[in-house]
């Protein structure tokens, strides 16, 4: 009887312990450490378009994506054929440039706009090849120099940026080129041609505090097209914030170029009318379709 009881105890306790030990070697118990979260995978969503984030060097970030509603609304018209459309909801999303006459339909994916980014001041762009879309806080703007076929994001000099409520209007024009001088160690007194495609912010006090010109030859726009873009901020010649705080480095001689000074001065008195397009960007929450 006693031997039978001992055998029973061995069967009930010893054997399970041995089996557990063997199993723990063959199939170890899961660690108590929390498992790392796997990044979510992009999946289609009805009514939304999937976008991948783009790095500063224009590389597509495979692990960073977001969704934007496919709804759209027209937020600006240059004329009967050319207009801007915002894709998204609540006045936030991506801007499309359309030129129906020339069959141009360009998505500006490098910049995501919110309702706070859309400018509240007057906006005119009579230029045909030069198209610039400014932001309310003047930190940057999307710009094209080939009629809207390609856009890049230009950064405004911190010395030139001012609050949007100080701006009376922005105007983008197709000007004639200006001859300038490029000064940089190893390249002193180098003549350069500054493209006349220019945008100007005119303040309510009449000052012109910013312009941007582009000469394009080598920037990679994709599809085998390469352009070289030089970026020249203009000066507010009567504005101490700009005149004393920023000499543009290698392009400082531009400050004293009389032709360029005359052009900037003329912007203070420019009359953007008659103008076929709208005078402001308009976006209404809930109007997207």
Write a structural description:
The chain is mainly beta and 289 residues long. It has a domain at 113-267. Helix content is 13%, strand content 37%. The chain contains three helices and 18 strands. The chain has helices spanning 2-26, 240-243, 258-267, and strands at 48-54, 60-69, 72-77, 82-89, 92-99, 104-113, 122-124, 131-134, 140-144, 152-155, 167-174, 178-182, 190-194, 197-203, 208-215, 220-222, 225-226, 230-233. The chain has a five-stranded mixed beta sheet, covered by helices on one side. A four-stranded antiparallel beta sheet has the order 3-4-5-6, with no helix packed on it. It is elongated and about 115 Å long. Mean pLDDT is 76; it is low at 213-248.
Sequence of strands across the biggest β-sheet: 7-11-14-15-18
Low-confidence segments: 213-248
Element pattern in H and E: HEEEEEEEEEEEEEEEEEEHH
- Largest β sheet strand count, sense and barrel closure: 5 strands, mixed
**Rg, Cα atoms, Å:** 30 Å
Structural class determined from secondary elements: mainly beta
Give the rounded overall mean pLDDT. Answer: 76
Q: Helical segment tally?
A: 3
> Strand fraction band?
35-45%
Q: Could you give the distance between the termini?
A: 87 Å
Oligomerization state: single chain
- Per DSSP E runs of 2 or more residues, the count of β-strands stands at 18
Residue share in helix: 10-25%
């Amino acid at each position: 009887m006693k031997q039978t009881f001992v055998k029973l105890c061995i069967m009930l306790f010893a054997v399970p312990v041995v089996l557990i030990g063997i199993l723990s070697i063959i199939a170890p118990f899961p660690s108590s450490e929390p498992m790392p979260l796997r990044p979510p995978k992009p999946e289609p969503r009805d009514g939304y378009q999937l976008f991948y984030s783009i790095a500063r060097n224009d590389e597509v970030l495979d692990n960073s994506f977001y969704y934007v509603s496919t709804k759209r609304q027209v937020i600006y018209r240059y004329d009967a054929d050319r207009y801007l459309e915002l894709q998204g909801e609540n006045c936030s999303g991506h801007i499309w440039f359309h030129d129906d006459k020339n069959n141009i339909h360009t998505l500006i994916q490098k910049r995501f706009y919110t309702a706070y980014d859309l400018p509240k001041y007057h906006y005119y762009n009579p230029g045909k090849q030069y198209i610039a879309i400014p932001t309310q806080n003047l930190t940057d703007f999307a710009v094209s120099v080939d009629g809207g076929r390609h856009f890049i994001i230009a950064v405004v000099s911190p010395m030139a940026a001012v609050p949007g409520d100080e701006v009376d209007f922005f105007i983008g024009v197709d000007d004639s080129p200006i001859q300038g001088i490029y000064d940089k160690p190893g390249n002193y007194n180098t003549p350069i041609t500054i493209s006349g495609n220019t945008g100007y912010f005119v303040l309510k006090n009449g000052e012109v505090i910013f312009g941007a010109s582009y000469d394009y030859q080598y920037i990679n726009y994709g599809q085998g097209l390469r352009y070289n873009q030089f970026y020249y901020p203009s000066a507010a010649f009567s504005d101490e914030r700009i005149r004393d705080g920023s000499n543009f480095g290698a392009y400082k001689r531009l400050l004293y170029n009389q032709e360029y000074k005359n052009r900037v001065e003329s912007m203070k008195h420019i009359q953007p009318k008659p103008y076929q397009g709208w005078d402001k960007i308009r976006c209404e929450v809930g109007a997207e379709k």
